[in-house]
Amino acid sequence: MMKKAIAILIILSGMCAYAKAQQQTDRLNEKDKGVQFSSGDKVTIEDDGNLITYFGNASVTTGIISVKNAEKVEYNVKAKKIIVYNFEGFTTKGSVNIRDTNLKPAKLEFTIGETVAYIN
């Protein structure tokens, strides 16, 4: 009986965390003109909602860039800065850019509203 109660509490806490992350994402989408985030694994919210991290097959799409199949996507809400880690490729204004996976893991950084992205 106790094991079932603990399992239910764990499931409920996970559902609450997911609902809060979805609520934050919905708020961001309205505020930042169609920026969309998704995650195949989990989402964490830290720093009083100012740092949202999407893990596992994560993606982000803005008006000028789209990145999919990333290990992790971090979004700093205050700075409007997005950092994408270990991704396979990205699309910019209709052109597909495939990353050479033989290179060291990549990090793509850009700020919402700007037209420049940096790959490290």
Identify the notable features of this structure and list them briefly.
9-stranded antiparallel beta sheet; 120 residues; alpha+beta
Q: How would you sum up the global shape?
A: globular
CA radius of gyration is 16 Å
Strand fraction equals 35-45%
The residue ranges in which pLDDT falls below 50 over 5 or more consecutive positions are none
Indicate the percent of residues in helices.
Answer: 25-40%
Structural class: alpha+beta
Mean pLDDT across the residues is 77
What is the number of independent domains? 1
- How widely separated are the two ends? 52 Å
Main sheet overview: 9 strands, antiparallel
How would you summarize this macromolecular structure in one to three sentences?
This protein has 120 residues and is an alpha+beta fold. It contains 1 helix and 9 strands.
Can you tell me about this structure?
- By secondary structure, the protein is α+β, with helices and mostly antiparallel strands.
- It has one domain.
- It has 1 helix and 9 strands.
- Strands 1, 2, 3, 4, 5, 6, 7, 8 and 9 form a 9-stranded antiparallel sheet that branches.
- The radius of gyration is 16 Å and the shape is globular.
- The termini are far apart.
Topology, pairings included?
Elements: H1 2-31, E1 36-38, E2 42-46, E3 51-61, E4 65-76, E5 81-85, E6 89-92, E7 95-98, E8 107-111, E9 117-119
Antiparallel strand pairs: 1-3, 2-3, 3-4, 4-5, 4-6, 5-8, 6-7, 8-9
